Amino acid sequence: MFSWLGTDDRRRKDPEVFQTVSDGLKKLYKTKLLPLEEHYKFHEFHSPALEDADFDNKPMVLLVGQYSTGKTTFIRYLLEQDFPGMRIGPEPTTDSFTAVMQGDVEGIVPGNALVVDPKKPFRKLNAFGNAFLNRFVCAQLPNPVLESISVIDTPGILSGEKQRISRGYDFAAVLEWFAERVDRIILLFDAHKLDISDEFSEVIKALKNHEDKMRVVLNKADQIETQQLMRVYGALMWSLGKIVNTPEVIRVYIGSFWSHPLLIPDNRKLFEAEEQDLFRDIQSLPRNAALRKLNDLIKRARLAKVHAYIISSLKKEMPSMFGKDNKKKELVNNLGDIYARIEREHQISPGDFPNLKKMQDQLQAQDFSKFQPLKSKLLETVEDMLANDIAQLMVLVRQEESQRPTQMVKGGAFEGTLHGPFGHGYGEGAGEGIDDAEWVVARDKPMYDEIFYTLSPVDGKITGANAKKEMVRSKLPNTVLGKIWKLADIDKDGMLDDEEFALANHLIKVKLEGHELPNELPSHLLPPSKRKITE
């Protein structure tokens, strides 16, 4: 008689079956989250509806910064190639949003044509009007870097008098739209111009809730001395701390991202290490793209749920006949109290609520009588999606990642230091002597031999206990010394001969000089007499 109840309940408990993460995200959004968004006018308040291209597009990197901080030069440095429409100069040169993307032939696609292309993830940008679209282009070119990622170049953020001149469109809102859809946001600062203008401050605040995507680059750092660089770095961290409201410090990369000689080469090693860290971060984007899209969908679903509670609460408080205008003003003014009540009744974290001031401004233009009351079924569907379907997609994400472990950005500047003598750390630390015909440890072996023969060797070998007495003088932790012992004891007999002891001391020196130890002993560090053992 009531068999339909069991069927509905069973449907809710059994999660959807998906073939790929991308297909799963599309289906979940269209069938479970989009109905809730449309019912409560989510798109008028927060973000336009997502399209298939938003789930299918390559990872995107958004570059943001004040004018002349090196944003366009940074892209040129990554691609090792000029792109159509590129202009570089000390004055504000980039006055458009430029999407640099892969294409078979070089060319520029204007904004109005771009927002009608269903294969590009930009269709919803038409809401910002012609003033924006006239300053939005897509530069297409064949480039190996762009096969894995796309890069968004933005106009230089204005400072001083220039910021009073209106752009004709809501610059912060456009950046917020991009921030929701990109995989990485890179804020560029010039080591000579650390002032954060009003517009830049407004932009960084608009990027709130996307701190996990943000990275900071302190560019042109080769133009100042080491002591000044320390002060500049401290001042930048202090300035960011006042604007970015997170307890964690945003990762800051220091360097000079262009292909010119370093003006002051004192910090060359630091710049190389920082560049490699940043490159690794960018190279990991394709591998983590599915997880990022899943994470963004969860964030969107949580916001949509809270939005539904807010709109339905306002609808519930409105009178059916008289005094609607006065009641609307009262509700908008008391929106903070409504937030607190929803937070208590539905156990929602305060961080999930939209910005109070912005929400109040948006509500002023709305007709509250057209709001919808609470519809439990829509909310239950989204809850079911978060509780069951997302968990299944997480498993699928891991499966896809394991099947494509080597998926990373290649070409351009990413290839320059990958192999050969100009790779980061080549010929340093444990890599010292890699190209030498002579065993590198032999240079200091006479000094190590003197110590070896004071440790009472028996049959040309010293025991672990005797070796420990000497090795602990380095003051390195036992965990590190234990690793050095495993690397040096090549024949695994629990004792060290003179060559193995010299190797152990060489590795101690490598560690004391600040380098990392290898997980396996490189072939060039094998003592000549032991090379046949390992073969």
Q: What this model shows, in words?
A:
Helix 10 links the parallel strand 7 (214-219) and strand 8 (252-254). By secondary structure, the chain is an alpha/beta fold. The strands form two sheets. Strands 3-4-2-5-1-6-7-8 form an eight-stranded mixed sheet, with helices on both faces. Strands 9-10 form a two-stranded antiparallel sheet. It folds into three domains: 21-47 and 291-403, Topoisomerase, domain 3, CATH 1.10.268.20; 60-284, P-loop containing nucleotide triphosphate hydrolases (Rossmann fold), CATH 3.40.50; 432-530, EF-hand (Recoverin, domain 1). The protein has helices spanning 3-13, 21-39, 42-45, 52-56, 71-79, 111-114, 129-133, 171-181, 198-206, 226-243, 268-283, 285-317, 324-333, 335-346, 356-364, 376-403, 413-416, 445-452, 464-471, 478-488, 498-512, 531-534; strands spanning 60-65, 97-102, 107-110, 136-141, 150-153, 184-190, 214-219, 252-254, 461-463, 495-497. The longest helix is centred in the middle third of the chain and has 33 residues, at 285-317. Helix 2 packs antiparallel against helix 16 (376-403), helix 12 packs antiparallel against helix 16 and helix 20 crosses helix 21. It has 22 helices and ten strands. It is elongated.
